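queue> holo job accepted (adenosine-5'-triphosphate)
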Amino acid sequence: MSEPILKVEGVQAKYGDFVAVEEATLDVPQGIIVSVIGANGAGKSTLMDTIAGVHKPTAGTITFKGEDITGMPAEKVVLRGLSLVPQGSRCFIRMTVEDNLVMGSYPKAARAKVKDSLERVYELFPVLKEKRNDLSGSLSGGQRQMVAIGRALMTNPELVLFDEISLGLAPTIIKDIYARIKQISGEGMTVVLVEQDTKRAIKTGEISHVMLKGKVVLSGRSAELGEEEIKKAYFGL
Ligand code: ATP
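queue> job finished
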């Protein structure tokens, strides 16, 4: 397996005095799908926000493509090729689908490629092309999630963190979105998938990391860990 594109070592993140991520250590090898699993409140979203520069860590280091990005603001992290699709990602409902997507290409380097990036997103999600001039407020939940994913892809990232993108969506839509994620992974993009559904996570991620109460308590190749071991770590049994 290749050198990790992302290394998270001993990361701690707090809200005031409350420690949401106590000690997170994990590697993400380049070009594969990695799942991060854990129950409600395990610290998954806080860890993703911290990696993406949305939340500042209070300890530890985050290394992306060999560069220390610990505490770097999100707008700079994006420029380096790391994008986040945040949990509950919403689009701007009074803006058209296309304007929502174009907003994702705000870094200068991405702006130059906006046409190509749009075409790529439309290839991935043809329904967005059909609806590109519609207000995002008229879209279904699944289509809005596609817009949120598309927006993150507009910067041509090398690594994308997807934070519970399946939440509240119908099974057929989830299946479709996951197929598209596998497609972009197959094209060389590295993917981190935050999931509460352990079965789906193991099936999709080549490697799984399990978080429990702010710590990464289990890591390994999904096929070797197996569902039972992962479930035990998930519930802290
Ligand atoms: P979920 O699956 O519910 O999103 P999670 O694993 O992503 O859970 P986090 O959202 O990172 O977990 O939350 C970790 C802990 O931090 C929880 O105890 C949560 O209540 C707390 N927390 C999250 N956001 C905040 C905040 N803005 N202020 C204070 N505490 C927060």
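queue> The two ends are 31 Å apart (CA to CA).
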